[in-house]
Amino acid sequence: MHYTGGTRFGGPNLPHPTLPNGPPVPQGGTGDNARVKVGPFLRHTGRRLPVVGLGVRLAFVPGLVPRLVLGLVFGLVLVALGAGPLAGAALAHGLEVPPEPDALSFVLGWKGDPLVWLPAIVAAMAWGYGVRRVNRAHPAHRVPRRRTVSWMLGLLAILVALQSGIERYDGSLFSDHMVQHMLLTLVAPVLLLYAGPITLLLRASSAETRRRWIFPFLHSRVVRFLSFPVVAWVLFAAVLWGSHFSPLFDASLENEWLHRLEHLMFLSAALLFWWPVVGPDPSPWRMKPGAKVLYVGLQMPQNTFLAVAIAMSSVPLYPHYVSQVRSWGPTPLEDQQLAGSIMWLGGDLVFIAAVILLVLALMHDEERRTVGEDRRLEGQRAAIREREVKLAARRAVEAGEAGEGAGDDDDGGP
Length: 414
Description:
By secondary structure, this protein is mainly α. The chain is built from 18 helices and two strands. The chain has a two-stranded antiparallel sheet.
């Protein structure tokens, strides 16, 4: 996605964005022009049938991409309704102490939670469909393979965090729980955003879909507010500090739905934070390379302070881990110190690597600007030299004509 100026994505009185290697994207409308006309709900004896009606309404939505999105929501609703009998078991998250882990426990101890696997499978299928659609339409400008690899690795990171053996021991080991959170905040979102899902969606969608669905969403006040760099930075830090130093963290260890909410908060806040600095996707707010370095660099100290506060605490911070009677592994305080150390070291490494890459990008941008400035100055110097040559030639001609005139006057004298 390329910009020719402005600070907001497709905002008023700004140039239209253009698709990478493609024609200009038509500007999306708002109001009645941005609404999608769908079929009515089915009625039975004058009363609406919500679940069946939603499925029928979904069938009338134009475009495959909107159908995939709404189909995912529809499927999640059905899964949630079907999981009702399991609600009692869900509330008992982390109360049972699993056996002592070994290497195979983390590698082979996978779960089959449909609320995690269904979105991941739909996301992988939607990506594959979008790539095939773009590659057919633009064979000379295909989707880079590294983008697909990054997207799949991002989904895999989420599955590893939430469905592998790591999830099994997150209620018994705080250090294990910290690894899970780092995967959701520092690994998965970076990989997903580097893939460029918004760019792929724009390239794969029809003009009608972009106008009715994508642009109105990107233009919405909510997206513009949440993606504002200061808001995204503060939100990311607030989620980390608020979750670790509030009753939410301990409560989520004993309630499955609060635990899911916590994971959703981590992933969402991380996606908003990394969006302006990672990947090719357009952001409602543009940031210069130098601002990106400052934006990411300032996040590292607060992450370090949080990790130090956890690691240096002289008492266990979470009663849940104290109440876990384990015959194996470290004590709750030792486990907490290990968790803080993992957050400290792992977080600093990620942020330092991100800052280094952003500094290299800044240097490349400065080099590109220097080369462009040199070319501009060279063009000006060449134009000046050309004018000097023409001026010298004209003066030579004028001097020659003046000399000939003086010779004629000498020949005609007395």
